[in-house]
Every structure is written in C-alpha cells, then in structure tokens.
Inverse folding.
C-alpha cells in the first residue's frame, strides 16, 4: 500500500492500471498512425521504423488538397451535415409524437399497431433494400437527399427509446393536467417533453453518430457525385485516387474528427445511451 | 317513481354518450399523434417488407424496367441450395460469428472486470477503448487497408523486422483475408462490449466480493464464481445482439475486400447487395434476404425462449 498525500494507492492496482492504459493506447495506435500519416509526404508514408512525428512536416498541405476543388471534401461534408441534422431533428419529432400516442393516449388499435412495429424490428434491413430501391426509383426520390432523409428518419428505434422513457412518467401527472382542462397537445409539450429531455438527448446523439457513419444507404441510393456524403466520398476517393496514401489518411481524419469531437463532448450520453437497453434486458 | 326511473335512465344514457364522445376523441388524438410516424412506417418499412416477399418469387433485372418482372415460383428458393456464393457466404458468416462473438465476450468481460475492480481512472480507459467503435467504419477500414498493405505496410514491415520472412498477405490472401477482417471487427467492437459489461457490473453488489475476500478467494476465483454468473443476463444479451449484428456485417466487407479474393470473404449482407446492385438480380436478392431473415428469426426465437429464464433470476 502506497500513501501519497493522504490517498491510499494499491501497488497491484497501479500495475494493472498501467497495463490497461497500455492496452487502450495500443488500440488507438492505428488512429494515431492515421493522424501522423496525414501530415507526411507521400514517400515517407511507409518508412520503417514508423516515424510517429513526420520528418518532413507538410502541415495542412494534404488536407488542403483533399478539401480542394479536385476532391471536394467540403461538399461531402456539407451533404453529410445536411442529411444528418435534418434526419435527426425529424426523427426526434416523429418519434416523440409516436411514443406519446403509444403511452399516454388510450385508443382502439394502439397495441396492435405497436405489435406491428415490434415485429418489423427483427427484419434485417437487407430485406428492404430492393423494394426501397424500386420505390425510390418510381417516386423520383432516387439520387436525392430527401430520399435518404425520409428513409433514415422513420426508424422504429427512436419510438422504442422514447416510449420506454415516457412509460416511466406516472399517468397521474397527465390525469391532473386533464382535470385542469389541458388537452393532449398541452400535456405533450408542457409536461411530457420536458421530462424526457435526457432520453431525447441520448436519441439525438446516437442518431447523429449513426447517420453520420451510415455508408450502405447512400451507397445504394446515391450515384451523383455532388450528392455524396462524407462516408461515400471517402470510399470513392480511396478506390479512385489509386494509392496516394497520405491523402487517403487526410481524408480519413476529416471523416472521423467530427465524430470523435461529438463523442468526447457527449461521451456519457453516448456510452450510457448505447449500453442502456442492454442492461435492463 | 317512474319519473325518477326515467331520469336515472337519462343520466345513464348521457354518461354513456359522454364516454363514447371521450373515447372517440381519444381515438382521434391517438391517431393524429401517431400519424406522421405511422405514414413513414407504412411507406418505408411495411410496404417494402411486403413487396420484398413478393419480389422474392420473381426474376427481375431492374435495368430492363418494371415490365421485366417475371413470376417464377419457388425457383429462387431452390437455387439457394445450388448457389456456391450463397453457401460460401453462409459458411464465412458462420465462421465470422463463431470466432468474433466468443472472443468479444471473453475479452470484453475480462477487461471490464479489470477496469472495474483494479484500475484508477476507469472512465478514461473506457473512453480510450471506445473510440475505435465510434470512429466511422469506412475511415477505420481505409486505415487498416493501408496498414495491412502486403509489401510495405507497417504491420508486415514490423513482422519482417522480428524475423518473419514471409508474412501473410492479409486482405489479398485467400487464407488470411477473413481472419484479418475478423481481427479488425473485434478491434472496433471491443469497446462496446467492455462498456456494456461495465454497466452490467454496476448491478453486482460489492458485499459479494467482500465476503469472498474474507473467505480467502483469489481475484480469479471471484471473477469465475461471482462476476461470471452475476452478469449472465448481460452476457446473454450481448451474445444475441452480437450474433444478429454479425449477420448484418456489410461496411467492413464492402470497403476492405468486396468479398474477395474469390468469394473468401463474402458474407450474407454483402452477397445480397452484390446480387442486387452488381449482378442486377433483384428477385434473387430478395430471396437471399429472406434466407437471412430466417437465420435472424431463429436467433430471436432462442432469445425469447431464454430471456424469461433470466428475467426470473
């Protein structure tokens, strides 16, 4: 037992902490390598032993090239931000309304419709890609951002998450508001929404991460380059730029940084949100 | 007498009417609140699912337009058994699941226990391990593709420098490609498993460990006889969700190998995509997707059957 400034430290525990930090750090090496390589000149990419600090530091040159007119990452960024933000906002809106209807209003077919929602949850998205593609083609939504937004904003997950949260609010709260003459809209906006704010924050962060990272949906439903999201742009860039690895890494860093920032800012929301459903079982 | 009886009848009728009016109002409100979501659900989920079942009994090259749809009965389903790519994809997928899920469960639980009980700055370690999970799959896979580059990639240079003269060619090597992808998958997912296990461990009361310590049980024994049994519901949940997720793996394959070399890394979700959008066999792609559904459905049934046992514990 080690005592530093009145705090007790366990020596085996210190050793274990060091080992775990080492493991954590090792897990981050590919990402550190990515960052380091993005600042290198192309012919230094594969020098061995690995130079973590680039010998010829090129500054932001690789980034300027990736973001420049030829490769257009700026445009992909804007597309991703647009789709992600709109889809997230509408998902929250639609899910909150739906969850309210499923928990605080008693109506005829409510439970049957909810069962239907539940049933579709175990259907893998692969089942729907062909028919969605056909629908998009037919309605002219193929190759539009609107199509992508519509397809991602109606996932049933949001309804489940908010329904779970609203079920925790006692009905007596709504009853007493009703006696005071409040209608459903007032109860929804003035009582329920403020109470489920934490769950809405969780849903917002999760939905942001998922939509930002979504690769399959844009891959199937977008073919026009000017509409590409960052993930799709990144993939196309990697397969077309041949083997300009330093640029590829600058592109990869650009695609990852917003996520890591969002994660570091809201890590509690993210980790707790992603693990919450798991533990309640 | 009769007057008051009439009155009571009237009052009752009035109450009935009131109740009906309230019920009608509630029905209307319920539907109105659900409507935006329900419309989206019908158009983008329910109709596609039903359509997909129909399309799975047809032959359809969408490049030839809607008129080219031809009903061909159970042909597609019969074809499944003779389709080498399907069988290969299914085998690869099973191998993928059987390797990655147990490894993730064991590593995840051991690390969660170590972090939870024998570590200072728990949260910082958890965040470090979680970062690969949050990073975008496309970016992460691109990084690994460069790191695993067969001749000059840092991984193989490292292997050569410690005396392995002919290191595997990883992603372009038929024997190694799937294993490399599994390793990358484990690397990205581990943080999630650790975080979920850590959340599960919060529900294990401390006094169990204290009692065991007094009885002289070693840390390893405590892990084996307290932690492992106590987090069984979490383990079960992760196993089920992990199996289902492993059958939907797509991004990794699409970015890293496109199913190759040959069909050595093709998995179900990737083969469905390839069938639909590279081979343009829309009907058969739906059939494949329903085969995938059957697998996932069986896993879900197992979950339902055993989840009740865990709920009672």
């Amino acid at each position: 037992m080690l005592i530093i400034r009145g705090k007790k430290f366990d020596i085996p525990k210190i050793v274990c902490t060091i080992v775990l930090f080492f493991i954590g750090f090792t897990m981050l090496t590919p990402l550190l390598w990515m960052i380091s390589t993005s600042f290198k000149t192309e012919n230094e990419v594969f020098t061995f032993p690995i130079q973590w600090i680039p010998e010829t530091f090129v500054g932001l040159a690789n980034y300027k090239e990736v973001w420049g007119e030829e490769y257009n990452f700026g445009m992909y960024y804007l597309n991703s931000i647009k789709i992600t933000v709109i889809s997230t906002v509408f998902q929250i809106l639609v899910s909150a309304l739906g969850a309210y209807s499923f928990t605080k209003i008693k109506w005829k077919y409510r439970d049957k419709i909810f069962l239907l929602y539940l049933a579709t949850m175990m259907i893998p998205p692969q089942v729907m890609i062909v028919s969605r593609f056909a629908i998009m083609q037919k309605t002219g939504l193929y190759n539009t951002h609107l199509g992508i937004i519509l397809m991602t904003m109606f996932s049933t997950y949001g309804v489940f998450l908010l329904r779970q949260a609203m079920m925790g609010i006692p009905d007596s709260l709504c009853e007493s508001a009703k006696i005071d003459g409040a209608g459903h809209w007032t109860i929804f906006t003035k009582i329920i929404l403020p109470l489920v704010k934490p769950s809405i924050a969780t849903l917002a962060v999760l939905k942001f991460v998922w939509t930002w990272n979504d690769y399959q949906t844009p891959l199937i439903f977008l073919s026009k380059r000017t509409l590409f999201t960052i993930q799709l742009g990144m993939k196309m860039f990697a397969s077309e730029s041949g083997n300009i690895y330093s640029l590829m890494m600058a592109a990869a860093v650009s695609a990852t940084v917003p996520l890591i920032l969002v994660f570091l800012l809201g890590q509690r929301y993210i980790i707790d949100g992603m693990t919450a459903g798991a533990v309640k079982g | 007498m009769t007057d008051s009886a009439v009155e009571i009848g009237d009052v009752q009728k009035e109450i009935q009417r009131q109740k009906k009016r309230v019920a009608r109002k509630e029905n209307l409100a319920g539907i109105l609140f659900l409507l935006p979501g329900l419309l989206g659900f019908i158009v983008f989920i329910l109709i596609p699912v039903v359509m997909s079942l129909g399309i799975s009994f047809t032959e359809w090259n969408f490049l030839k337009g809607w008129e080219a749809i031809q009903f061909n009965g159970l042909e597609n389903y019969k074809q499944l058994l003779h389709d080498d790519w399907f069988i290969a994809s299914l085998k690869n997928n099973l191998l993928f699941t059987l390797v990655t899920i147990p490894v993730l469960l064991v590593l995840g639980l051991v690390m969660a226990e170590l972090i939870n009980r024998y570590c200072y700055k728990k949260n910082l370690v958890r965040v470090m391990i979680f970062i690969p999970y949050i990073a975008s799959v496309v970016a992460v896979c691109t990084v690994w593709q460069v790191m695993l580059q067969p001749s000059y990639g840092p991984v193989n240079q490292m292997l050569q420098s410690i005396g392995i003269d002919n290191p595997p060619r990883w992603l372009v090597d038929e024997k190694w490609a799937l294993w490399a992808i599994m390793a990358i998958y484990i690397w990205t997912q581990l943080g999630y498993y650790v975080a979920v296990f850590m959340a599960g461990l919060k529900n294990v009361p401390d006094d169990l460990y204290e009692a065991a310590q007094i009885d002289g049980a070693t840390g390893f024994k405590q892990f084996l006889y307290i932690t492992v049994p106590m987090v069984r519901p979490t383990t079960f949940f992760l196993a089920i969700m992990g199996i289902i997720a492993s059958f939907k793996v797509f991004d990794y394959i699409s970015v890293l190998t496109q199913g190759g070399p040959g069909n050595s890394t093709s998995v179900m979700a990737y083969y469905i995509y390839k069938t639909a959008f590279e081979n343009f066999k829309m009907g058969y792609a739906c059939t494949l997707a329903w085969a995938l559904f059957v697998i996932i459905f069986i896993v879900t049934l197992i979950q339902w059957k055993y989840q009740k046992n865990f709920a009672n514990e």
The two ends of chain B are 62 Å apart (CA to CA).
